[in-house]
Amino acid sequence: MSALLHLRNKKGIQGIYGRLGDLGTIDEKYDVAISTACPGLNNVVVESAKIAEACISFLRKNNLGVATFIVLDKQNYSYNQIATPNNVPRLLDLITPSVCTRLAPSLLPVSN
């Protein structure tokens, strides 16, 4: 992950937001439960498929391992409040996007 952030910061590649788990806040009392239930929090959020491809090429070229990407321009999830039994909040509702609300839909696939 640090190599991808270096790519963003030093090489000027825009559209790499970072590790999903670093892009939101979780109430401390739910932190362990959410972190355990959502291994997708290690996914890397990027703006477009083109940016994801550049990141994958960089990782391969430098033999830095693999990463799973969430591509925002490919997301078609709706981030709406829904009624739940006994008004219990969904896991997703316990995470607050810290960068922008546009990132909220990227939380849906990893919180279901």
Describe what this molecule looks like in 3D.
By secondary structure, the protein is of the alpha+beta class. The chain has 4 helices and 5 strands, in the order αββαβαββα. The protein has a 3-stranded mixed sheet. Strands 2-5 form a two-stranded antiparallel sheet. The longest helix has 13 residues, at 49-61. The relative contact order is 0.21.
Shape, principal axes of CA atoms: elongated
Approximately what portion of the residues adopt beta-strand conformation? 5-15%
* Sheet/helix structural class: alpha+beta
Helix content: 25-40%
Using the CA coordinates, give the radius of gyration.
Answer: 15 Å
Please specify the SSE layout and strand pairing.
Elements: H1 2-11, E1 16-19, E2 24-26, H2 31-37, E3 44-46, H3 49-61, E4 69-71, E5 95-97, H4 104-111
Parallel strand pairs: 3-4
Antiparallel strand pairs: 1-3, 2-5
